[in-house]
């Protein structure tokens, strides 16, 4: 830019102005002014933070969690397409709703985080893999930001008496400078040797038909727990075409698997205790776990008028209760007069809790046994018509000669 004075200058002037950083910042800036009589004046200004894009700090809070803080873009560069990758050591679990972002000196908030970044948590296939998540920018960033978040401490997962957290920074045209940071925090409250060497094992689960164990079942879904804590393996464990799923690198100890989805055509037990399998990993030898499934079996409750078994009744509501006293969600007969429910093998009682329109409630309690002998069972329940309330069904049309 050019500054022009009017008339003759006979006294000194001081010109003061401000420049903003543009693009990727530098650590040193040079500014030269040239007069119309070829006098040159040069100044150099150091920008110490000009190549600092990411740094991290952590604060241990008791024995339960660590609060982390990221200082982003201390260089005050203008950057697009930022990806911040954070890697947590074993024993740390991200609290996904804990992120708060502050711009310049503003108080960090969740709303600001959601405006500027998207959180992407990478699924883990092995428990000994670190938890990794990415923060991807949604818009151009040209200010210094402070990002706070929390991780829970899972003491039984810590392999050494310390945890660490490392972070890396990528952005468009950012090729030099401080683009990574790592923090290590001692966890002296963790007992034991803490080496973790030789203290991991594995298991293979095989899902089979209860009546023929040679039939392997694909598509069964399980959740894995150590104690009462569900282990974060991304999605559910799912058996493959051989009916198997394997999990490696598990710390020694007691585990349980809970079936949450049955294979197609098979029954998921109603009671959680009946779909829970407990086992121990005590050596490096792979454990074998066999889980069976009963084929899906159905009870069809058919509702008819007591005067005509072909007069099927819709709108009747039934409750089915198992021998443990657990009542299934109520079922209602459709226009075909059928209410259908899938049930495991066992003994049940059936009660009508709402009668079809124009009929008296049938108060009888029916007993039904679902056995392994077949997959379809039927219970016919009759109702008496309230005089003058329910019209007779339309007669069947005469057959055409």
The overall average pLDDT, rounded, is 85
- Proportion of β residues? over 45%
Can you count the beta strands? Answer: 28
Can you summarize the main beta sheet? 5 strands, antiparallel
How large, in whole angstroms, is the Cα Rg?
35 Å
The arrangement of helices and strands along the chain is EEEEEEEHEEEEEEEEEEEEEEEEEEEEE
What's the shape?
Answer: elongated
Given the structure, what is the number of helices?
1
> How helical, in percent, are the residues?
under 10%
**Alpha carbon gap, first and last residue:** 105 Å
Structural class: mainly beta
Given as residue ranges, the uncertain stretches (5+ residues, pLDDT < 50) are 188-198
Structure characterization notes:
With 401 residues, this protein is an all-beta fold. It is elongated and about 120 Å long. It has one helix at residues 110-116, and strands at 28-34, 40-46, 54-61, 65-72, 83-88, 92-94, 100-103, 117-121, 131-137, 145-153, 162-170, 180-186, 200-209, 221-226, 229-230, 237-238, 244-251, 253-261, 276-281, 287-293, 297-305, 308-312, 317-322, 331-332, 338-343, 346-354, 365-370, 376-383. It is 2% helix and 45% strand. The longest helix is centred in the first third of the chain and has 7 residues, at 110-116. Strand 23 (317-322) and strand 24 form a beta hairpin. The strands form 7 sheets. Strands 3, 4, 6, 7 and 10 form a 5-stranded antiparallel beta sheet that branches. Strands 8-9-5-11-12 form a 5-stranded antiparallel beta sheet. Strands 14, 15, 16, 18 and 19 form a 5-stranded antiparallel beta sheet that branches. It contains 1 helix and 28 strands. The protein starts with 27 loop residues before the first strand and ends in an 18-residue tail after the last strand. The model is unreliable at 188-198 (pLDDT under 50).
